[in-house]
Structure formats: structure tokens, C-alpha cells
Amino acid sequence: MDNRYDVIIVGGRIAGASLAMRLSRQNLKVLLIDRATFPSWPAVPSSPIIYPSAMQMLEALGFAETEYACPEAKVTHVVMDMMGKFQATFSTELMQLDRNYIYGIDRHKFDTVLWERAASLPLVTARDNFGMTDVIKDDNGRVTGIVGRTGERRTGMRAEERFQARLVVGADGRFSQAARKFGSRPFEELNDYPSASFHAEWENVGRYSETMQYPAALFQVGNGYSLLCIPLGNGKYIIANYLRTADVNADGKKAEETYLENLQKAPRLREQLKNARRVTPVVGVRRIDNGYRQAYGDGWALVGDAFHYESPLDGQGIYNALLASQFLAEAIAEWQAGKSWLEAGATYQQRFYDSSIAMLKQTVKRVKQELYTSPPPDFVVNTLIRWMLTDPVYQQQFLRYLARAIDPTTFSFSPTPGPIVRGFWRDVTGRRNGRET
Hints:
By secondary structure, the chain is of the alpha+beta class. The chain is built from 12 helices and 22 strands. The protein has a domain at 4-49 and 106-189 and 289-359: FAD/NAD(P)-binding domain (3-Layer(bba) Sandwich), CATH 3.50.50. Helix content is 33%, strand content 26%. Strands 1, 2, 8, 9, 10, 11, 20 and 21 form an 8-stranded mixed beta sheet that branches. The chain is globular, with a radius of gyration of 23 Å.
């Protein structure tokens, strides 16, 4: 096997596989590796949602929706259940985009589809069950390749192999080994409100209601705890919890015990799970950091969560991975055209930072509001909060915010005069809309 490549990509899930596809279009010879075997779930749980913005990028890569999404996982309604006091229903038609729906994504299938597409390309050599053990550097400290070996999942441990490349890219997630080996360090973090999340897949989940069978749903349990339910199709759901890091082992309980107990605190969800079965272990992250690592250096780069990591609460991970791989591929094209890699890499890092920092700050604000702010009195929930969450203008802005269709800085999670006045008028005139139950 030839051990020389233009680019080596360490990590073959969304960011890594999509980058390999883009680089193959530049006639670059690519080695794509992942220590996992496919099909498989990612080692670190995510919020598996894609919005129209991500669908557009997948379409540009040549994917039809039918290849990666289950038709039954198409989401046309999002429900917010406010501590059982009322439910606000958001119709995704309000987005008014080229696609007015979102999808819950089975990462087991989705990641495999991307991996197999990348592996099928003539200029891409893809090796799963193969992990990097070290990077190779020259006398000046420039990264020039990797050392790795096949794991024991299939064939037992094998001898290490060495591969050379003009550029080595770490696409191996928020706990990136590549970043550590490269010597990358965070340059900005927003960790004043540390959170945790654990999730599991459930099957045979009951219908939410007769009119909305399988919506995406957020249950505000209160006291710094919420539950996000994402449909995967055919009665399957990913159900994730979000809580403060300090509460993970509260009262000496294990994370799984806390997760299962709190599912019972949402009455409607409890009813949906009456005949359901959990089909995966409860897995998660005890401390979710938010920030950016240095994304480039002499002979190396980072992409995806290895570069930018944040809370999955707003479901931005897939979009961010695809956007970063697009920007990195364009920077590599500039490098190929004669720009120095350090200059091209700096442009890539700044470009992605500028495109994502406002959304990150808003996500952190939402974490603060939902997990670290004391629940408002019932009177406020049943008036100001209800008026806001059932206001069609607010709902449209919220959905477009999630879809990255508006400037995130223009959106507010707190009640503002417009929704309050309109909601008050609906109550006074008895014209409550169909967006609340």
C-alpha cells in the first residue's frame, strides 16, 4: 500500500467524511481513518437534528434526503411543554424556507452513509477500525504524517503503520486526540454555565397525540432540568436530558438513575413511554465545554467538534461540521493555488469563527436561562411565557434562528413587548390560537 497522501483525515464521521468528499473534487489523494467500525454510533452523543441549512449542504455534496433520512422522521411540528402547565406547538411551515421541515437523524445510519460515500471515491482510501497512535513531525516541528494501527475489533492488534501527508487534519471530535498531538489549545471558551447531557434510544414510543403523532418535543421539567425528544421514525426516539454538571451525581445517584427518574416527571412523556423499550445504554457527557481550539498549524488542521465544540441543546452540531469542512476545503484549495498554509489556515479559522460565534453565545444564553435560572412563578409562566411561546411571530423567529436563517443576535429568548401585547389581546378577546393546549 502506498503510504503517501496529500491529506490524511483522522476521524471519519460527518466533518471528516464530508471533507474527504470535497477534497476528492480537488483531485487530492486522501487517507480517511476512524478507530470505530461502521455502522456504529458516535462515541460522544449528539443532538441528531438537521435543519434546512444542513440539508442544502448535503444536497451540494450529492445526497438526496432519502439516502440519509427516514421519511417517518420528518418533523413538521415542535412542541414545548412548560412543566406540564401548557404546551406550545410550533409548525415548521412558519420557517418559510425552501424546506419547511426538519429531520431527526439516526446517526448509526447517517454516519455510515457518509463514510461509505467517501470510501467509494477513487482518490479516497478509507480505513475504519484503524486508530492514530501518534503524529510524525520533522526536525522543525512540522507535522508530516501519522502512526496508527488496526484495532482489535476485527483482527487483533497489528503492527503500527506509518503514513506521510502534506497536511494532517483532526476530525476526531470534542475530545480530539489529534488536537492534543498537534499541540492545539483553546483560544476562546464560554464555560460559565457547565452542563451535562445523557441520552438513549427508545422504540415503540407512543404517539404524542392523535393530531401530532411524532413531533420533536422539549419538556421543561424545572429546577435546571429539561428533556429533548427527537423522532427517528417508526416509533423510535432519541431522548436526551440536559442538566447542570453539578447535578449529575446529586444525592449520590448514578447518571442513568437520574435520567430514568426524570423521564417520569413529564406526564405526557411518561404516558408515551408506557409500552416503550430502551434499546441502547444511557450514554453522555458530564461536562460539556463550549469554545474553539486553534484550528491550524504547521502541517495540520482541525475540523468539526475537534475545532469548535458546544452544547447540543440547539442541535447545531451537524450544520457546524458541514460548514467547517466546506470552509476548510476552500482554504486547502487556496493553499494548493499558492497561498502559504499558515495564511490559508488563519483565514479558515477566522471565517468559521465569524460565522459561528454569535450562535454559540446565544446557545450559552439558552443554557443559562433553561438550566441556571430559577423557574418563574406560575403566574408568569401562564401569562408572559405562554404569550411569548404561542405567538406566531416569535415562533417563526425561533425556528428561523435554529435554521440559521436569521442573524442570531436579533433573537431574544425572553418575553418582549410584541408577543406580550398580542398574547394579552388573545386572552382578552377569547381568540386563543391552535398553538397552545
